[in-house]
Amino acid sequence: MSSNPRLSVVVPVFNEQGNVAPLVHEITAALRGRTAAEGGDFEIVYVDDHSRDDTLAVLRQLKSEVPELRVVHHVTQSGQSTAVRNGVKAARGEWIATLDGDGQNDPADIPKLIAERAKSSPDVKLFAGWRVNRQDSGSKRWASKWANAIRSRMLRDATPDTGCGIKLFEREAFLDLPHFNHMHRYLPALMQRAGWKTVSVPVNHRARGTGVSKYNNLNRALVGIADLRGVAWLIRRGKVTRLEEV
């Protein structure tokens, strides 16, 4: 594995022991053997958010089998946004691809996002997955539909699906964004606030393989109200100043 990979795949996990190995092998299958121009030189950074099952043990075993795999472990549970940010901070690639650890995102879509980046202008810093065929329960799809509609109306981020875990973004641009709990749900709006463009890309979506979801409609709604107000305030107070050296 290169010490200077072009792409880092960051995967936050909490109690996903049954989904770790299949997803790691799918990531390597999707990315090994690709040319450098396509982001073939890669690493995988798993961030274990202090799991209470055997997730960490499975990851330790996989490290001996998968040379691209690196593992970061939270000493205390800190949440998905912090796990994503710590994974990005630990990553060595210039560009970051993220996946949810439950296996519902398809790693085969990562090359699709990379191809979209190759034909886009340099000021596009985020390529967000758009789940056009959701494989969730009816209540979850309904809640997501209304949440996306409310968010779009308040933030005007022109993004049909911000909850999709598969994304591709520039590491430096991401680390320059304001960090707060649940910020991973508002990346398009935050990137646009920073003066960058974003693109939504249709991607595959799958049913969860094993385990249970860590969220429900009620807790997402309660935190979402406060988050939306906060992000709207950030956008109103934001100012972008471009620099040039003389």
Automatic annotation (TrEMBL):
It comes from the Bacteria. Residues 8-174 form the Glycosyltransferase 2-like domain. CDD domains: DPM1_like_bac. The keyword Secreted does not apply. Keywords: Cell membrane, Glycosyltransferase, Lipopolysaccharide biosynthesis, Membrane, Transferase, Transmembrane, Transmembrane helix. InterPro entries: Glyco_trans_2-like, Glycosyltransferase_2, Nucleotide-diphossugar_trans. Gene3D superfamilies: Spore Coat Polysaccharide Biosynthesis Protein SpsA, Chain A. One of its GO terms (biological process) is lipopolysaccharide biosynthetic process. GO terms for cellular component: plasma membrane. GO terms for molecular function: undecaprenyl-phosphate 4-deoxy-4-formamido-L-arabinose transferase activity. PANTHER family: UNDECAPRENYL-PHOSPHATE 4-DEOXY-4-FORMAMIDO-L-ARABINOSE TRANSFERASE (PTHR48090:SF3), UNDECAPRENYL-PHOSPHATE 4-DEOXY-4-FORMAMIDO-L-ARABINOSE TRANSFERASE-RELATED (PTHR48090). This is Glycosyltransferase. It comes from Montanilutibacter psychrotolerans.
